[in-house]
User: What shape does this take?
Amino acid sequence: MAAASAVRGGLSAPGRLPGVDLARGLAVLGMFAAHLIALAPWDWREPATWGDIASGRSSILFATLAGVSIALVSGGAHRMPRGPRLTFVRQALAIRGILLWLIGLALIATGVPVFVILPAYALLFLLALPLLRLAARTLWIVAAALALVMPWIQPALDALPLWQGEQGAILALLLGWHYPVTVWIVFLVAGLAAGRSGLAVRATQARLLGAGAALAVIGYGADAVVRAGAAGSAPFSSSIAGDPLLGAELTAVLTARAHSGGLFEVVGSGGVALAVIGACGLVCRARAVAAAVLPLRAVGSMPLTAYVAQIVAWAVVAAIVLGDTADLDGMRALHPFWPFVVGTVLLCTAWALLVGRGPLEALLAVVSRRVLGR
Assistant: This one.
């Protein structure tokens, strides 16, 4: 009876979307793969390289789902009216953003050699605050405009002198600049737009799957064409050959390389994120499927807990076994991916069934309410 009550208060709580939890679970475990496995570059002819799909795309899915989550706690398919409720939600999100940033700094201090996403995630929460009043159509337009513009601006931002030297490296860590919010705001706004579009509706889920797949084909297809041209097999390659500066700028922008912030990555990987969210929503409409993927949904119901636990466990294991938390090759040589995945899935499932809300998720909620006095 207690377990059933916990489930109703957690994974099966009214208004909770199983497909969103499933997508979050996939994003978290995908980041595990990107961190813990030395992934070979993607080659569709070599199945052994297909794991590279986790590179970059998992964190982009994670950021897109941040927008979805913000939409769901701020009115769902309906934008929030002005008033005390809107003020309270904005204040609560701001506090959570600050707490996420502090947790991110603590994870960086462990010395684990991953680019911690939480500082950037926290800044995205703050950037979302002015957007809560926007309707879905407006949010989609904003996301599209940012996607087409920001990749062209990002190389100039990356070249600023403030990133140089040791102080610049520290600043980049504090801001999570490996995930520059100036580009990653695209994914947050797209997720917010998806959440405002009615994610519980089958038609919305189907549109996300179809549109996301189309964007992925466009982004990665364009990247393939440009790479072929750069290799000299397309007529336009000669037009930039005489201008190395122009060629370098175009190479930085017209690419789908993971974590490049390039136009084709934003379009292609952003499309993958939307397609995954739509597909997860559709498959979880079948109760049998939703029940079968409950362990993955459990991970997705507490993504912060799972993400933080992975890095803390990494730091502990590396310190004990290797004597150095920063030894990436040594850690990967221990083949920790499957033990980490199995342990995370089992612990999250047990917690979701017996307790409900994830411990760090609950802590953030309690702190937010205490700070706001509500």
The chain has a mean pLDDT of 90. Residues 202-230 form the longest helix (29 residues).
